[in-house]
Amino acid sequence: LKRRALLVGGAAVLAGGGAALGAGLAARDDPVAAAPASFGAETVPFHGDHQPGIETHPVQAHAAFVALDLRPGSGTADVRRLLRLLTDDAERLMAGRVPLGAADPELPARPARLTVTVGFGPGLFDAIGRPDQCPPIIRQLPEFRTDRLDPRWCGGDLLLQVCSDDAVPLSYALRRLVRDARSVTTVRWTQRGFNPARGAEPEGTTPRNLMGQRDGSANPVPGTPEFEQAVWVREGPDWLVGGSMLVLRRIRMELETWDDFGRAGKEMVVARTLDTGAPVTGGLETDDVDPRMVDGRGIPIAAARSHVLQATARTEGEKMFRRGYSFDDGPTTDGLPDAGLLFAAYQADIATAFVPVQTRLAESDLLNEWITHIGSATFAVPRGARPGEFIGQGLLG
Ligand code: HEM
Questions:
Q1: Residue 375, SS3 per DSSP
Q2: pLDDT digits (tens, 9 = 90+) for 308-364
Q3: Is residue 143 classed exposed, middle or buried when 0-12, 13-18 and 19+ CB atoms within 10 A define those classes?
Q4: What is the DSSP string of 297-336?
């Protein structure tokens, strides 16, 4: 009785936060379902116009990005079978159920808002004999002046982005998805990232990155017309309309020199303060940086080459939604940090958004002193699957 009361109480709190609870899961009469409710019981719906894991808000605490390559000789039938299987796995895992062929319910039972998002790289379109369907910008990003790309973090035929507030169900989901993909694919790279733990700060607080900045303050807000406009593809083939394009950049941070740099300088580099993320020109975190504001001597308060002033969208087409994760694979054997940002940005068109913004940043962003882009991959992210469909069905038929 006591447990049930806790469950109901938890459900009320969680529902108040706008989260979808796995009601079916909670109602099941087994020991797992009888455990008290918590963030772990929350689920995100799999079906919809858009794939999950893009507008899922707040961003989950953990992510794994895995790029798969199709084995040589794979064709349309193999890719279709693979996508059917991955869709079925994703649907079950996100609902807190075991995938087909697995027995023990404990590991997936508390998915903690697990999402699985699938993206297509150029090689997939070639393998199915539809190279014309690959948006040209997905095939080839321009090189940027400051790029120092290591092939080990680049490219991929198929992306799995798996996110959850709990690293344990995430790990399980990933191993089952990759296991089911193994007969048709090999793993090209895996990149794991994290954000502050759910509950560490009040819900809705902008996450901090490893430089200590609030990162995402000026993002379009999921559910708003600005977000819809920035993120979802509106024109193009049916399988992509309602989908998106993802740029994933692995960006190393020089955290030792950053840590030793003065606080005022750090805030000048970005034009936002470290504590609240508010503009250095004043106001609240939700305000824009004012490039015209000057100090007593007539000198602009926000540096023209600050990250924010360079990155701000100058056209509607430049807008994007940043859904980044920190990575930390250090320390190295020398005791140095090996950390940075998995910059993941969703947008309706990489050619009009990421490309012009990154071109500007590569030319003149004060932040460049402390960051280096070392990995890059782009994926077309199909629209969401409706019940009975598999992801990418419109492309594979
Ligand atoms: C804003 C950090 C890379 C695009 C910001 C802000 C921070 C930040 C602290 C201000 C708060 C906010 O609005 O989120 C970083 C770090 C990076 C990085 C540490 C690399 C390690 C990039 C890249 C792009 C980008 C590669 C795109 C090419 C933006 C945009 C804004 C922004 C569009 C919002 C500007 C506005 O309209 O106010 N970034 N960023 N950032 N960043 Fe970055």
A1: strand
A2: 999 999 999 999 999 999 999 999 999 999 999 999 999 999 999 999 999 999 999
A3: exposed
A4: TS-BSS-TTSHHHHHS-SSGGG--EE--EEEE----TTS-
Beta bridge partners of 373: 251
Residue pair 366/152 in contact (Cβ under 8 Å)? The answer is no
Segments of the chain assigned E as strands: 62-70, 115-120, 158-164, 185-194, 244-253, 321-322, 325-328, 339-347, 371-381
Q: Could you give the ipTM of this predicted complex?
A: 0.99
Per-residue tokens: 340: 């940075």
Residue 342 structure tokens? 């998995």
Q: Is the peptide bond preceding residue 331 cis, with omega within 30 degrees of 0? A: yes
% helix / strand / coil in the chain, to the nearest 5?
30, 20, 50
215 lines ligand 1 (CB under 6 A): yes
- CA of 318, closest atom in ligand 1: 33
How far apart, in whole angstroms, are the C-alpha atoms of residue 275 and residue 285?
10
Give the other-Cβ count within 10 Å of 1's Cβ: 5
From 180, 215, 349, 365, the catalytic residue: 215
Q: Any residues with CB less than 8 A from the CB of 356 and at least 6 apart, and which?
A: 314, 315, 318
What is the rounded CA–CA span in Å between residue 387 and residue 272? Answer: 44
CA distance 325 to 342: 5
Atom number, ligand 1, closest to the C-alpha of residue 312: 37
Residue 208: DSSP 8-state: B
Task: Give the tens place of pLDDT for each residue, 276-295.
Answer: 999 999 999 999 999 999 99
